[in-house]
Every structure is written in C-alpha cells, then in structure tokens.
Amino acid sequence: CESNEDGTLTLHYISPRKGLYPIVIGVVKAVGRELFNIDCTIEVIDRLGEQTNTNNVGMAAQDHVIFRVTENKNSLTTTTTTTTSKTTAAKETSTPNGATNGTSVIAESKDFSPHFPDSLHIDPRNFCTAFPFHIIFDRELCVLQSGTGIQRLCPEIRAAGSSLRENFVLEHPLINMTWDNIVMFINAVFVFSVKQTRMPLKGQIVLLNLDAMLFICSPRLTNLNELMDKQFYLSDIPIYDVTRELILLNQQREAEIEVSKKLDETTAELKRTSLALEREKQRTEFLLHQMLPKKVADQLKQGKSVDAEKFDEVTILFSDIVTFTNIAAACQPIDIVHMLNNLYAKFDASTTKNNVYKVETIGDAYMVVSGVPEVVKDHAECVCDQALDMVTAASEVKSPATGRALQIRVGMHSGPVVAGVVGLKMPRYCLFGDTVNTASRMESHGIPGKIHLSPDTYRALMRKGAACRYQFQPRGALNVKGKGVMHTHFLVGKDEKRPDLVVDESDAQYQRLDPEDTPSMKQTSEQSAAASVKGGSGANGNSDVTSVPVTQQSQLDVKESIKTSQSQESSPNGCCSSNDNCTVVREPIRGRSATCQLM
After folding, report:
1. Which residue stretches belong to region Disordered (predicted)?
2. For 121-158, what is each residue's pLDDT tens digit?
3. Which residues contact 578 (CB under 8 A, 6 or more apart)?
4. Which of 163, 193, 220 is the last residue of a domain?
5. Which of 203, 220, 237 is the last residue of a domain?
6. What sign does the dihedral 269-274-279-281 (CA atoms) show?
C-alpha cells in the first residue's frame, strides 16, 4: 500500500489465484467501514501479470492488480466525530474537579513525537551480539552486516561481497528477490530460508535509507526436535525472543498430544480386550453348560453350593450299540472314535430340540434324562421323541467293520430320582436312585433297533393322553433280574407307523392287544406270561436275561442266525419252558426278539 500526495492510497494485490480481485474491493470497503468508520471508493487502476521464480523451482504466474482507494467525504465520518465529541464532553462534565480520564490522555497521545539521540551508544560488535538474527544489505542485495546467529547458520555470509541471493531463498511473499519488489512489499512478513540447512527465518524488513535495508528476524522453529535436527540450541535464541516460549509451549502440547494418543490407543486396546474377553467368557459358559445344566452352572459361577434335589418323577433313557464289542475288535481305535463322534453328534443335536439333558456317555452307552434340573410335565414324551430320533440317527451311521447301518438298543423308565453335583474337580451332575437302575435294565433287556418302555413310562404317557400321538406294541410279561415280572411295551412310532420299528407280528408275545383280539389270542398271551415265569424260574424264583457273545464268521461279519435244535419246543414267549438251562441271545433273527440255545 502506498500513500499519494492527493490523499489517496495505491493498493497492490498480488495472488497466484486469478480472478479473485473483485473480492478485495468488498473486503477493503468493509474493513474501512467497520474498523475505521471510513467510507471509501475503490477503483482498479491497472491489472498486470507477473512471472515469479519461486524457490528456484520454476516460473509461476501471478495476478497483480493495482487499486486506488479514495475516502468519501460523506456524513459517516462527520456523524462519528460528532458522536465522539459529545461523548467526550459528557465524560469531562461528569469528571469531578476537572480531572481528566483515559480518553483525554489517549487523545493527547496522538500528538506524541519521539526523541532520538544524537549518536548511538552501542558499537557494531555489541549490536551484532545483542541482535544475533539480523541482516543489512544494499540495493544489489549484497550483505553489509549480519548478526552472530545468522553467521552461525550460514558461515558463507561472512565473506566479503556475499549476496543474499546466493545464500538465501525467499519463501514469502512469492515475489522475485529484487530491491524494488522488496520495497513494494515492505510492510509484509518476510520468510527467508538458508539454502544449505533449509532453516527458515521469519521477520520484517526496515528501510534504513535509500541504499540499505535491515532484515531483523528470528528462527522459525516449533519444537525441540527441529532444534536438534538443525544443530541449534535453545540458548542460541535471545531471551527476549518469543520463539523460546513458543518452542517450550509447543513441546508441552506435543507431549500432551502423545499422552492423549497413547491413552486413546490403550482405550481402544482395552475395548478390543474386553470384546475378546467377552467372547472367551461366552465360550467358557458354553462349555460349562455342556458339562452341567444351566441352572446348576449359574449357581456354581455365583459361588453358591448346589444341594442335591429330589424329583418325584423323571424319565431316563439308556442306549448302547449292538455288537459294539465285535466292532471294536475288528477295527482300528481311531475308526471307533470317528464312528462314536459321528453318532453322538447326531444324538446331541436332538437333545436341545427335545428338551432333554444329556447326562453322560461311557463307551457306547448314552444316557439322557428329562425332568431335571428343571421340572418338565411332559418329560416322558420328550424322552420318547429323543428315542425315536436316536434310532433314526443310528441308522444313518455305518459300522466301520461291516459297512452296514448301526443298530442301538434303547430302554426307558420313569420314576423318582435324586440329582446333584458330585466332586470338586471335574464336577458332574449325577442321578441316583432305583429309577436309574431300572432304566438300565430296560435297555439291557431290549431288542436291537427297538425302544423298550417300562410299565411306569407307559402309564406316564397314558396319563397325559399320549396314546393318540404315539404307537405302542406290548411285549408281554418279562422277568427282569431284581425287578420280577414286568409287562413292558415297545414304542413303535409317532403319528404314523414306522416300518423300521415294527416288530415281527408272527411272534405271539408281540401281538397287539386290541379290543378286537379273539379270546384265544388273549389266552395265548396269558399262557406266554405264565410260561415265561415258569420257564425262567431258578432257585430264587428270579430270572435274568443275559447276553451271550455272538459267534463270528470273520472279524468283519457277525452271524445273523443261530442254529437251534429241531427237537427243542419253543413256548409262545420264545423261551424253552421245559428246560431251565437256556439263555436268551440279545441278537434278533429277522424281527424275532430272542432265540433259545441249550447250554
């Protein structure tokens, strides 16, 4: 900006962005009106285009527009002056004893005239030390004088006749480094950088006379790392220079930012750890719920003791694999493991659907219960559904010995039990009572591929009206060791008859006892029961159905038939009533439940 003799101002606008000079007109008018209460007129005098060599990289085009700023003699200034005069008079009137206030002191300060000494009281040596960052150069931009700090940054400047262009680069403003351009931007902030170290120096240029200028500056540093990179020290900066405080404050701010950044990283890591911990907790709870019922597991997690409970009526199921001993003898152990894992995975998938609890597996034995630890009213129906699913699932698994579908025996019984957690290390939820033993007897006295129901389970299903949903077939009277004679049933299917579960209708003891049955059939059934008791009676009056190993044709094949004596007479229940020395083989022959063999 330049002052003219006619009272106008010449304003130079230089920008690398072309076409924005109309904005300058509005900005300057607003500044004059809001800050100085001056209404002015701005007109474009000339518009030039300049090529600027920036940092010796290349030529850059700049838009140079020259404006003339003229103050308007309108009522704006007059009104402001009148208002100010009235305000000043009012304040002077309100001031007692004719005392003056701050307003009059400020008004008098406008007439201040500084006093200059006749000679300097500082020699050049002390001046260069007191002001270490200054440069005095002439019209040719040759360095006439420099401070000690500048000389340390750029030792080449100490040589006689050294040039400002040879040792420094003008970073700001973006103009060519010439005397005339510097004079034009004398009121701007100048930033020079040392060519060798790229150390920026920020300051202002003062016109000393028509032949010399003074550039007084300070290093443009922001933190201690830049000081170390430039091999500079904090003590090299004058105490009066605010750059010291700027570096220290910025260093403190960076330290706070670093701490905040680490805190954010720690918080994020903590969140990730919390999520991972939650996932592991869910996995642990899942595994715990596989070992113990959810109700019992939650009590143990809360540190509570789990007392044994008595349940009035539950239904227990046992199952085992037919000829498992022969299969295990004919195969590698890893094949047995794969077979059992495949089979039990199918069984386990049905437990959740049927609302039963898997108690344990020992070898080929599989045990489930319904009604514990949560009381279930339809416990017998739940276990029946599980039994049907298990028989179907077993038929989908092949034996590694024969390649044929597996067969399982299933036995069920309902009654009271006591349940609780046993042990502190590897605790298990166990069931105790005669119901468990009876359910095991139903399984051991069962027939391959059949679901054997005790009388108590059958009655529990009848009480709940399950006769219309399930299909049963009476087995008749069966002498069970330790239990006496029991009238058991087979569960044939649900909703519709399942061919794979239908027993041999030719066997008299498995005939369905429908109301339409003839008296002769009923009599045959009664005689069958009597013959079973008589033929199976021993010294103690009790008989046990035991298992005889099946004769093997080879390691991979199991005999499907057992030779019987043609002279042997079979009673209707399939056991020799005339000979007590007989056993019932647990392997059926084409649907028959048992085959007698003389011992």
Report:
1. 76-102, 511-582
2. 899 899 999 999 999 999 999 999 999 999 998 999 99
3. 535, 569
4. 220
5. 220
6. positive
